[in-house]
Specification:
There is one protein chain. The chain has about 190 residues and is of the alpha+beta class. Helix content is about 20%, strand content about 35%. The chain has an eight-stranded antiparallel β-barrel with strand order 1-5-3-10-7-9-8-6.
Amino acid sequence: MYAMQYEITLPAAYDMGIIRERVATKGHLLDSFPGLGLKAYLVREREAGAPVNQYAPFYLWGTPEGMNSFLWGPGFQGIVRDFGRPVVQHWTGLSYAEGPAAASAPRTATRHRAPLGEAVPPGEAVADAVARHARAARRDGVVASALAVDPRHWELLAFTLWADPEVPADEGERFRVLHLSAPGRAGLGRGRQW
């Protein structure tokens, strides 16, 4: 499993209706994309209390071929054409879990990043994080959750989809989910990814 996200930060006065319309008309195009586990079409809006206006899709890929096919194909080229070439962040998957609200449509997503401290060997730190993630994914309201690591910066990333629009404040950065494409969600594999 591979996690990927790019963030397109937009001007404070940007009409976010343009992004909502883009997702409404084009979001379904990845509903059957080969190699894609899921794509959450995410936004943050200043008028809703976010620090920025932002379009920030988040992907979980089941295969590197699917991710590469998207990045070098026409889908991502549309983003580049319309917004410029964003930095594409990516992480190696550590764990994936379906939550108690797995049958619900997600309305909110959270992203929490934390450094993988130097005081503990990486294998131990990752094993502890995976165990915590398994417990956290069983909380009420969780649709699905993934844990990943960026070994270049030694950073852990927890990404969670929630059925409710309101989630606990300490969950990290909050996004609104406009659409979920999930053609390979069932094949992402549960639990530890090694």
